[in-house]
Write a structure and sequence with these properties.
single chain; 109 residues; mainly alpha
């Protein structure tokens, strides 16, 4: 997440969506669903860091929300944040963003 690059993120998501579509066409998606959802969650985690992109997070492969807590690619803060956002507790996600901004501000001083 520290070397965020919008083009890289877009390319990664496009590749995962192509793979998901390929798996669905060949009726093997259910065999790989959890792993693909984990990859999608990883690729869209940057969208959790701004309220402006929360809807994009929610809209991209909505079934991935079922795998938030088991995702090995998200740290615990991102798991809590994404779980709260997907379960309509956005006020908690907002508070987490507020705390993150305070931490950044304190680190600058």
């Amino acid at each position: 997440m520290h070397t965020f690059n919008k083009k890289t993120m877009h390319d990664e998501q496009t590749a995962y969506l192509d793979i998901i579509n390929f798996f669905k066409r060949h009726d093997v998606y259910n065999d790989y669903k959890k792993q693909m959802c984990w990859r999608i969650l990883k690729s869209k985690q940057e969208w959790l860091l701004s309220k402006k992109t929360w809807q994009k997070f929610l809209d991209l492969v909505p079934e991935s929300r079922c795998y938030i807590l088991s995702c090995p690619y998200l740290n615990n803060k991102l798991k809590v944040n994404s779980w709260c956002l997907t379960h309509h507790f956005s006020f908690i996600s907002s508070f987490m963003l507020f705390l993150r901004k305070l931490k950044w501000r304190d680190n600058l001083v």
